[in-house]
Write a structure and sequence with these properties.
The structure is a homodimer. By secondary structure, chain A is α+β, with helices and mostly antiparallel strands. The first copy, chain A, folds into 2 domains: 22-395, Bira Bifunctional Protein, Domain 2 (BirA Bifunctional Protein, domain 2, 2-Layer Sandwich); 407-513, 3-Layer(aba) Sandwich (Rossmann fold), CATH 3.40.50.800. Chain A is built from 19 helices and 22 strands. An 8-stranded mixed β-sheet of chain A has the order 1-7-8-17-16-13-9-12. In chain A, strands 19-18-20-21-22 form a 5-stranded mixed β-sheet. In chain A, strands 2-6-3 form a 3-stranded antiparallel β-sheet. At the A-B interface, α1, β1, β2, α3 and β7 of A face α1, β1, β2, β3 and α3 of B.
Chain lengths: 516, 516
């Protein structure tokens, strides 16, 4: 007989109260910064028509399989490009169970949202009259990727926290993207100089490749995908994949692009040939490049504009740098791209020094809305990888949030349940979190074990004697745990952490124990 | 050529900033109450193995089709009931792409979470040594149902906010469920006496049906499903479906259960034959029932215990009532069931008086975890229908949250962008939300239209002259909108809502306009 195993799907996970507390600290602090820059909180469904989201996943050999997709159980009409229902040769409407996808990011749904608002017959039929309206939103929530390889710290469901400005090509919005990321991370609790916001421009990369003679669009995308994974496969791996190909660890053959050695050398020189990290110096080096051409020049001018504004507003190289080798995986980026790298390392469970790598990413995607609307709509934005950032904060112990469980009222006699409930009600009236112990194992040891496991702060103990005397016994569990390490004598320990107080003073004493 | 229509899936929706603000007000206020009762915040994935969630959907003729399910793209082993991998006749491991489902509620995933923690070989092999541990959590997030009929206010993605106590059969936890619901709704902003927490007990219903001679389990479920939808189909419809069947509006034939008329009359009498709404009176009537039997009696005793505790703690009939006709749709309930009904009505867009109906539901489900664990684990909990409650608050205007957009810095000259950015930075340093206008349409009218649409509170206007004079012009947009109704003269209006202040006083003046 087939059985049911109670388990999560591989790559998915449950979030416990401490991690949830941290996750929502990150979301609250960053959202406040987003709001302060004028972004407003929108939400979109987790499930969308697959064709609305498109396919822009970063390279991991799973461009087509990286998304959870399935057929809509509902059958619906098929439309042509003008939005009219399609018919077959006999004039019957064509119908289909469309493909649905769990969103793989929050940018593609934003593009759908924006396009849907504007996708009116008036706009469709008079594209020349159209000027895109401005739209600024932030959004957070889970996104889904069917990752075939689940490295440590990688999940198939993870949270992102995005902000985007749609409807402008103003480079100030790009500079602002770097500022928002920096401000948000510091509001969350990252120290200055423990992270870098890195900026590059796809136009510079594209211009450079054109200058090298690589003008084919699909070849360009292939080169960028390989450059993007240089972090993973190393510079040698990158050079091999640009050239004759290589074998990976499993022995599988990864074919190369077959570029000439001189071209590969030029690429390596360009990506890593900068002698100084100062933004001004990188701009100067780039402007002297022998590969200069109009696209390259446009990208360079944008970077210069971004640098100018950042400098004027005090965002120096201890926060924002230029990184000429930065690509960012998503295929929809068209201009400036952003990434935040944490500079902190930590020792993992296996005793190895590790970094979490990129904690934010973003860029300009001037083609993403256009694809749905047939009209040009420039846009720029970025995303905090909430779960990756939480892992960083946990592993580096950068942020210790105080997270206590409730006060617990122990149950010695179920006949006294009403009394226990009244005690809880009294404490709650003073906004103190309290639970009454409902467990089926009533001995004191089991109740205390449950209190420990729930990180309860204070235990309220009332037996028949206490009830008659009109008192309650309070045990400070937090202090108790601390003192347990230094005080061996049980009675001495009890004296310090446990007091008997008149019922009328209970609320005040509990508040003192909780330091409220 | 096939086109892409930018649109959401039918039954899904985007949430705008105002509604999002309301939704998160509801979540924050209720979560605080849940926490104060000692529930802790856990999260589980939106996607689960279909067999872990099981099939417990309420009746809407779509018990099998009500869930979004699809095959896992990953192939995985099949296990037997003991958790061992299954093999075919030749000894090869059996593999399969398991069915995955988007969660249809938060209770089934909670059961999986609890069972997964305990599903160890030690527990599986020694069920006699097992005493369930106590587990109390709250959780919120979207759930998914493939509703075939989309009535107004019904969605395929909607948010729930659950709290549950797993591992106890203590009836105090059931009484507490009603208390938490009442406290949470009042914390959100519902006025006393505008809602009722309704309680019934499935054991009383089951006992009554047994007393009537309806002992077949599947017949019992069928009767309860029909009784549950009496609200929708009316009492006549219910009686017909219990008897010879009926035709629905579309003319489709709905077969009946074929019960005898006397049995149907007894059911109707039992459900609606109570002369008083007082809990004590209902208990008295029930205890005199001629259908009394052990199951009935057990249910009655539980209701009496719940009443006792509620009365002692001051939860009277203006908050919590007994409702002998209450069933609740989910098939997993085994004991007390809960529902909250809003008593408020409102006039909808079509001019019709409407109610939102049930805004919370819950109950005891002692079999749900057992199904996954093979061990008895009693549990009770309830859920606030967040989106239904938000609709109620919006439609009845019970709660007017102040939700303003940011201050906006208008852009008259892009050459002055650095200056505009510095103004924004200065205001943000005082924790004021500000955006700089990045739209591509720069004329004043378009900028003001955008500010209106974004509900901006204050506009900062700086041209070349102001910059030279060291001043800024501030326009109070909120006051402006209010005065526009009463002041016709443009100059008089401007005088009231617009001031020029020295740059050094800008922050203070903006704060005054925002009443900070």
């Amino acid at each position: 007989m087939r059985g049911i195993i109670p388990q999560k799907i591989k790559g998915f996970r449950d979030i416990d109260p401490q991690l949830n507390n941290l996750r929502h600290h990150v979301i609250a602090k960053a959202s406040k910064v987003y709001k302060n820059y004028g972004f407003e909180h929108w939400d979109t469904p987790a499930l969308e028509y697959a064709d609305c989201l498109g396919k822009y996943m970063p390279d991991d050999d799973s461009v087509d399989q990286g998304v959870y997709s399935f057929r809509n159980p509902e059958i619906e009409p098929i439309h042509d490009e003008k939005g009219n229902r399609m018919v077959d040769e006999e004039g019957n409407f064509l119908m289909e169970n469309h493909f649905l996808s769990l969103r793989y990011d929050l940018t593609a749904p934003l593009s759908r949202l924006y396009a849907e608002k504007l996708w009116t017959p008036a706009v469709r039929n008079n594209p020349n009259n159209f000027r895109p309206s401005l739209f600024r939103r932030y959004q957070y929530g889970p996104v889904y990727r069917f990752e075939t390889k689940l490295d440590p710290g990688r999940f198939r469901e993870f949270w992102q926290l995005d902000f985007d400005t749609v409807g402008t090509s103003d480079i100030s919005a790009d500079a602002e993207t770097a500022m928002v990321l920096s401000d948000a991370l510091e509001a969350i609790g990252l120290k200055r100089d423990t992270y870098r916001v890195k900026i590059n421009n796809r136009k510079v990369l594209k211009g450079f490749l054109v200058g090298l003679g690589l003008t084919d669009e699909s070849l360009e995308q292939s080169v960028l995908r390989i450059v993007d994974k240089a972090d993973k496969i190393g510079q040698d791996g990158m050079m091999l994949e640009l050239g004759r190909g290589r074998k990976d660890i499993s022995g599988a053959i990864i074919p190369g692009l077959g570029l000439e050695q001189s071209v590969i050398s030029s690429i390596v020189d360009f990506l890593h040939g900068f002698s100084s990290a100062a933004r001004k110096n990188i701009l100067a080096s780039l402007s002297n490049s022998k590969f200069m051409n109009p696209v390259f020049e446009e990208g360079l001018k944008e970077l210069a504009g971004i640098d100018e504004l950042l400098a004027q507003l005090g965002y120096e190289e201890d926060r924002v740098i230029f990184e000429p080798s930065l690509v960012r995986g998503m295929a929809y980026y068209t201009g400036p791209v952003f990434e935040v790298e944490s500079l902190q390392s930590f020792i993992d469970e296996k005793g190895l020094e590790r970094r979490v790598g990129s904690i934010c990413g973003g860029g300009r995607y001037d083609g993403l809305v256009s694809r749905l609307l047939g009209l040009s709509v420039p846009a720029v934005g970025a995303s905090i990888g909430v779960d990756r950032l939480c892992e960083l904060l946990v592993q580096t112990k950068s942020l210790e949030l105080d997270y206590s469980g409730p006060v617990i009222v122990l149950v010695f006699d179920t006949a006294m349940m009403t009394e226990y409930q009244k005690i809880a009600q009294e404490l709650r009236a003073s906004d103190i979190a309290v639970e009454v112990y409902y467990g089926m194992q009533k001995n004191l040891k089991k109740q205390m074990a449950y209190a420990d496991q729930s990180r309860c702060s204070v235990a309220v103990l009332v037996g028949e004697d206490e009830l008659k005397k009109g008192v309650v016994t309070l045990r400070n569990l937090k202090l108790g745990a601390e003192l347990a390490a230094t005080i061996a004598d049980k009675n001495e320990w009890k004296e310090k952490v446990q007091i008997e107080v008149p019922r009328g003073e209970m609320v005040q004493k509990v508040k003192e124990m909780l330091s409220l």
